């Protein structure tokens, strides 16, 4: 049984989601109407996943996410929103959401989002380093200390930034890494960052990984990049 904490101030939508998810089965849904109640419910309910609205009275969805992440870095969070602003979505990702779903949606759609997210998290948790310096990317060995890839085509030596970028993507495997996060970590902030330079780095690393088609760096338009391993 998946324990779902639903934070939604719209009574009609909240009722539809709660009833719909429970009818689907395999869900125990606790529905609260605002972020303050969500914080209280989080402590007592200990959910497996959180679904929260973004625009709510008393405490916005973004503030709620921020406060949850201060006490729990791992619980999956899906934000429901009718906001189309990429700036708001990027801010939500920077605060720690795992995905977002646009309103209006059906319970079946939310179920698909949740099942996909939990599957990705399971894959991430079962992807392990063989030692402190070796990361397995499919059939490719990534040596972070030597900054090299061992592929079926041979050894590929990476530049410092290429290695750092690939490791950043791996640390967030199956999750979107926003462009501003990449800029801060790889280029030290927006002052030294251009989209064109990032495009070149992504293109080059994709070529390095091309010996294993199961390893992909996906472009998430207007948001960032995601490393996936099928």
Short description:
It contains 8 helices and 12 strands.
Count of helices? 8
Percent of residues in helices comes to 40-55%
- Tell how many strands the DSSP assignment holds: 12
Shape: elongated
The biggest sheet, with number of strands, parallel, antiparallel or mixed sense and barrel status, is: 5 strands, parallel
Strand composition percent: 15-25%
Strand order of the largest sheet: 2-1-3-4-5
For this entry, give a set of tags.
single chain; 230 residues; alpha/beta; five-stranded parallel β-sheet; four-stranded antiparallel β-sheet; 12 strands; 24% strand
Please, could you describe this protein's structure?
Helix content is 43%, strand content 24%. By secondary structure, the protein is an alpha/beta fold. The chain has a 5-stranded parallel beta sheet with strand order 2-1-3-4-5, sandwiched between helices. Strands 6-7-8-9 form a 4-stranded antiparallel beta sheet, with no helix packed on it. The protein has a 3-stranded antiparallel beta sheet with strand order 10-12-11. The longest helix has 19 residues, at 107-125. It is elongated, with a radius of gyration of 19 Å.
Secondary structure: elements and pairs:
Layout: E1 2-7, H1 11-24, E2 27-32, H2 35-45, E3 49-53, H3 61-71, E4 77-81, H4 86-95, E5 99-102, H5 107-125, E6 134-137, E7 140-143, E8 148-151, E9 154-157, H6 160-171, E10 177-178, H7 179-186, H8 195-208, E11 215-220, E12 224-229
Parallel strand pairs: 1-2, 1-3, 3-4, 4-5
Antiparallel strand pairs: 6-7, 7-8, 8-9, 10-12, 11-12
């Amino acid at each position: 049984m998946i324990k779902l904490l639903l934070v939604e101030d719209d009574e009609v939508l909240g009722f539809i989601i709660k009833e719909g998810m429970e009818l689907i089965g395999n869900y125990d849904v606790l529905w609260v109407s605002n972020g303050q109640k969500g914080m209280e419910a989080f402590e007592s309910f200990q959910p497996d996943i959180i679904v929260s609205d973004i625009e709510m009275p008393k405490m916005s969805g973004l503030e709620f996410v921020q406060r949850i992440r201060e006490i729990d870095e791992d619980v999956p969070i899906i934000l429901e929103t009718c906001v189309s602003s990429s700036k708001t979505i990027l801010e939500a990702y920077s605060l720690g959401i795992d995905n977002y779903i646009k309103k209006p949606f059906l319970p079946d759609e939310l179920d698909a989002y949740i099942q996909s997210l939990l599957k990705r998290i399971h894959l991430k948790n079962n992807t392990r380093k063989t030692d402190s310096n070796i990361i397995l990317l499919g059939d490719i060995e990534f040596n972070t200390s030597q900054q090299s890839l061992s592929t079926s085509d041979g050894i590929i030596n990476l530049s410092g930034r290429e290695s750092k970028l690939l490791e950043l993507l791996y640390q967030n495997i199956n999750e979107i890494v926003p462009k501003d996060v990449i800029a801060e970590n790889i280029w030290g902030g927006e002052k030294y960052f251009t989209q064109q330079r990032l495009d070149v780095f992504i293109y080059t690393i994709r070529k390095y990984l091309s010996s294993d088609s199961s390893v992909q760096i996906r472009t998430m338009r207007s948001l960032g990049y995601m490393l996936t391993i099928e």
